[in-house]
Amino acid sequence: MKRADVLDEAKRCVCGQREQDYGTPEDNFSTIGNLWAVYLRAAHPDLAKVLPLNGISAKDVAVMMSLLKVARIATGSSADSFVDLAGYAACAGEIVTQQKKRTETENRCVVCDEIIPEGRQVCPTCEAGNTRCKHCGTFHPKGLKTCPNCGDST
Asked: How far is Cα 29 from Cα 90, in angstroms, rounded to an integer?
């Protein structure tokens, strides 16, 4: 497989059906980061003192998924691992360049990404349509029996 083929295949993967199936990489990776943080805080209570619930960013996820691919390549490589590595690098690059377009002072809603006042996590619109989990403090849609972040019953 030539380098152009690896890049073409990575582009086909990350710019095609996957985004339609899973949403944008930034949104999907942000969700993964939130779930990883909840898991790490529960599995390693000392981390809860230093790792906030949203402490693993979309960029962090893209980089760590790239490292997973590097580990697989180190122990036995296939063309798919190189395609995936290129795809994760492209996603990380997009996430970082999109984040740089925002000013440092903008505080954004964790649900809808709207600009909100400093000190808030959720805009009033999202807050009105969501319930705060008593266990982990995150918001989720009203009517759910368990919190999607921590699994606690609501």
From this structure: 13
